[in-house]
What we know:
This protein is α+β, with helices and mostly antiparallel strands. The chain has 12 helices and 7 strands.
Amino acid sequence: MKSVFRYRHSLRQRFILTATMMLVPLATLIVIQYSVFNSTITHLNNVIEHSSFELTNIKQLQQAIHMAVMAPNDYIVHGNVNERENYTASSDKATATINNMLKVMAEHPDELDLLNQVDQLWRQIEQKALNILATTNPVGNNAMAEEMESLDALSEQIAPILEQMFNIVTLEIAEESEDADHLRNIMIILIIGGTSISALMILWLTRTLAKAVVKPICCLKNAANRVGDGDYSTCLSWDRLDEIGELSKSFDAMTEYLEKAHTKLELLACQDSLTGILNRREFDRRFSNELSRAVRYKHDLSLIMIDIDLFKQVNDKHGHLTGDYVLQTFATLVEKTIRDIDQFSRYGGEEFVLILPEVGREGARILAERIRTLVEGTSFGEADGEPVHITISAGIACYPNNGTSEKEIIDSADKMLYQAKHSGRNRVDCAD
């Protein structure tokens, strides 16, 4: 009789030998549980797929429009006709991204309205950009300079709209997470209700059935509650071959999927898509936290702003793919050089920023010089049969010597970077 209750026997075998009346409610309970799990996974999969698509396309669109606006601006400044090709590539990418997003926005009227606004502004930008690029003598042309100012104004109108779209997608993710919590609560109610009914039907088997069914279900309920509270690392890892074992495997599969999806969303929100390091948004948040900590404990805090010298010439001479490779390789080189507690971010374009907690002016200068020397002596691949070499300029500012607010420190570091670039480049300048 004891072997009947081992987990290697199916629930059907055990329940037939103990109480036929127990079979129907438990079997129904298991099917419903399994259905709710699958429904939850499918639902969350759709949410992750949609949100990932939108977040990725918003970032791509933002980058493409930025590059498209840079082309006519550089054309007015330098008169380089290659900027027409650069503009065409960026313009095609921006238009294609908008069209792809329009195809899937029918069920999201708020986002569709914002995207239509972006589309209208983008068409105006295209017209003005083409007018500028069609000019044969752009350098020193006051009319084209005014046209470029108008184009920049349109570009600045797009940024807050894309930011609003990003916030809407984030809000949708939060709302869908609440729906998933509701599904988990229904599952818990079903588990508790089914278990209670089964216990009432066969009181004389309470002890045996508690070990065989009720106890693992309660564990499953607690695990579901932990997942509901955000602990996606919850894993049952039950070595069972019965129906509950299958259910636990489905639960483990769901939590594993949720953990990966949650990590992916966090990375999308704080990681630069090209280099893999922190983006500007995450830098602002972390710098604010580090400065608050430095003020509270009266510790040093240094900020290094780094700019790749003449990076536009790398793009113009070797192409944007080589330029992207240079940015990625440079980011990897710096990350291998700094400490674990240092925080490296892409500030924009070819400009980067490094937060150094508990490091003073001299320590920051030594690290910046080390990075500058490494970059100067490193080959960043080959293009057209010749090695690609770059140099960097850096500006350093420290708390509390160069400011007590985020803006003061950033402005001071940026001023030093400007000084380094206008003093011959490939150098490090520190604020007094």
